[in-house]
Amino acid sequence: MLDTRTKIVGAERVAGRTVVAAYFDPMVATHAQRFHELAEQHGPLAVCVCDPGDALLSPQARAELAASLRDVELVVIGDEALSQAAAIIDERPGDLARREALMAHVRSRQDA
Q: Residue 8 contacts by C-beta under 8 Å, 6 or more apart in sequence?
């Protein structure tokens, strides 16, 4: 079995690459779908796990979740890694929408 945590690397490894910026807070099934779509367009992905400011999970936990996706080749932790990227695919707004949808679903189930 592959230990996907080995995909978590230092920021210098994404220098000159296209990097996907995301929160993964929390990771949901639509992340896998979206990242598969991105990989079909761009090849194996380098991902930067960014800080949403009010994270539910630790940066390391979110990085481990991101690394578990088959279409992700490398994961770095921290927004500062983005300064080394050649280009950025910003999935952070989509992540906020995914998180809000999950929270709305949980609230609706509590109300039922």
A: 63, 64, 67, 75, 76, 77
Tell me the two tokens of residue 99: 């998180």
* CATH number, domain containing residue 44: 3.40.50
Q: Is residue 1 part of a domain?
A: no
CB count within 10 Å of CB 69 equals 21
The pLDDT profile of the chain, 112 residues, written as one tens digit per residue, is 567 888 999 999 999 899 999 999 988 888 899 999 999 999 999 999 999 988 989 999 999 999 999 999 999 999 989 998 999 999 999 999 988 888 898 999 887 6
Query: How does DSSP classify residue 19?
Result: E
Q: How far is CA 81 from CA 11, 14, 84, 100, 105, in A?
A: 5, 7, 6, 26, 33
**How far is 10 from 100, CA to CA, in rounded Å?**
30
Domain that holds residue 100: 6-111
- Number of domain units in the chain: 1
Q: What is the pTM of this model?
A: 0.88
